[in-house]
Amino acid sequence: MIDTAGKIEPPVRAEFELRDVAAAQFGEVERPLSAFERVWNQAWVRRAAIVAFLALAWEIYGRTLDNPLMFPPFWDVAQALWHDFVKGPLLSRMTTTLQVLILGYSAGLAIAAVFTTLAVSTRFGNDLLSTLTAMFNPLPAIALLPLALLWFGLGIPSLVFVIIHSVLWAVALNTHTGFKSVSETLRMAGQNFGLRGVAYVRKILIPAAFPSILAGLKIGWAFAWRTLIAAELVFGVSSRSGGLGWYIFENRNLLETANVFAGLLTVIVIGLFVEGVIFRAIEARTVRRWGMQR
Amino acid sequence: MPDASRSAPPILKVDGVTLQYKTTEHLVTATYRVSFEVHRGDRFVLLGPSGCGKSTLLKGVGGFMTPVEGTMSLNGRIIDRPGPDRMMVFQEFDQLLPWKTVLQNVMFPMECAGKWRGAEAAERARHFIEKVNLTKFAEVYPHMLSGGMKQRVAIARAMAMEPDILLMDEPYAALDALTRRKMQEELLELWDDVRFTVLFVTHSIEEAIVVGSRILVLSPHPGRVKAELNCHQFGHTAQGGVEFQTLQRRIHDMLFAERIEAEAADAHD
């Protein structure tokens, strides 16, 4: 309606109040999902379906190509994997690699902890960490391998050195960023409870920054894993036992292509296991349970 | 109410306090020579518009800021650092530790300060969680609670410590109007029950009169004391009453007098 001045006026309507709205009018309020929907809602089911599809495509392509030297079909690779795992050297190669990895990863974490502690407690430490991460984070760890070989010789110390380098900066950077982004309110609450020094870092800062710390651990793990396999490919066997990288390299030289694929599959499966089982379990128990991450 | 001059000495004494803080570009004087005294059982309200330094003043009492002039003392001891004898309830909902359940959150300061431990702390925590009507949510993580519930947990956490004084920094400002009113009523019921001492910061005149027993009115830029008023006689039930509205009007005029004068001067031009 438009009044005399030309301004829009909404019409005045009668009031009403409803007593009871019959529940029957709503129809279906809640309905259970079908069995298929419930199964398909599980992320791992969908992922497993993708993996199965890829394996099938691989098998079909390998069979039609019929050139096991260049591209063996999936079934041959699976057999080679099984054989080398049970009777061959694959299991011992895998243990060697994992041992070196755990050694390097934990050393990297320990040094990262020292650096971040320095960085949160002093301004100089802060500048030190910022400068060092800016310098070394973009430097691929594998580029340090020639230097490491010169310093530490062929063997585990060289591998550990490059792994430390690949883990340290990623973890330190993420942890430090996490500490810096802890909200002012939470900091004040912690101080209000009388927390100071190490207790304050341990009980407030670390849990509050845990999403970032976990992200750092994941990135560090991925870097370490890649660097280690690459390093093993470059300088092969150390003392008597080689690692997974060496296994891949050795079988390529022997033209056992199915075994090369088996080695690669092992690398992938271990990567998936750590990411999908270990880190996922940590996430479910911590950051997702606390509502700090979806 | 007993006569102040004959009762026990005040527990909190703020004497000529000037507080300053630095931004990236300025040195800001938040309060200038502010004095007041809080007695046991007071619901003491710091009221003023934004920029009057009321939150800064509360942070000073909390021990997060050191005055450049004047002194603040709690039970005769100079305040020089944060401590659990002055438990703070913040406006922000993220004051709860997200990695702890409601029960663990309430227990946490008791165990940090070593005042109560283990089963005793848990029992106290449950008692105060019940007082804020959250018994059903004791084992729940904070991210599953509504804003009002989070503030109730923060209040329970602070009260369970039996602090000498409870500091509340606009605790209900981020809540919707209905929840806010309910929370104000609950706070008054709790006070009736436990008789704690609280220093309460707000910018709402209505909230100040309802929640407070005494109001310190501050003027802005920098914060200076404008008046100290009694309002212990008013609660939610008095809200529509003439006296309530008179007091509300009086404070309103006090706070906005300068603007009205300025507007009046403009009108005369």
Polypeptide structure, described:
The complex is a heterodimer of chains A (294) and B (269). Chain A has 294 residues and is mainly α. Chain A has 12 helices and no strands. In chain A, helix 3 crosses helix 12 (257-285) and helix 10 (210-235) packs parallel to helix 11 (244-253). The longest helix of chain A has 32 residues, at 90-121. The two termini of chain A are 50 Å apart. Chain B is globular and about 55 Å long. In chain B, the strands form 2 sheets. Chain B has a 6-stranded mixed beta sheet, sandwiched between helices. A 4-stranded antiparallel beta sheet of chain B has the order 2-1-4-5, covered by helices on one side. In chain B, 38% of the residues lie in helices and 23% in strands. In chain B, helix 5 links the parallel strand 7 (165-169) and strand 8. Chain B is built from 7 helices and 10 strands. With 269 residues, chain B is an alpha/beta fold. At the A-B interface, helix 8 and helix 9 of A face strand 6 and helix 2 of B.
Q: Which architecture of chain A would the CATH scheme give at its second level?
A: Orthogonal Bundle
* Coarse shape of chain A: flat
CATH 4th-level superfamily of the largest domain in chain B = P-loop containing nucleotide triphosphate hydrolases
CATH architecture annotation of the largest domain in chain B: 3-Layer(aba) Sandwich
CATH topology of the largest domain in chain B: Rossmann fold
Give a count of the beta strands of chain A, DSSP E runs of length 2 or more. Answer: 0
Shape of chain B: globular
Main interface by residue count? A-B, 21 and 23 residues
N/C terminus separation of chain B:
49 Å
Number of helices of chain B: 7
Overall structural class of chain B, as computed from helix and strand content, comes to alpha/beta
Helix content of chain A: over 70%
Order of helices and strands of chain A: HHHHHHHHHHHH
Please report the first level of CATH classification, the CATH class of chain A: Mainly Alpha
Strand order of the largest sheet of chain B: 6-7-8-3-9-10
Q: Unreliable runs of chain B, pLDDT <50, ≥5 residues?
A: none
Biggest pleated-sheet summary of chain B: 6 strands, mixed
Oligomer: heterodimer
The ordered H/E elements of chain B are EEEHEEEHHHEHEHEEH
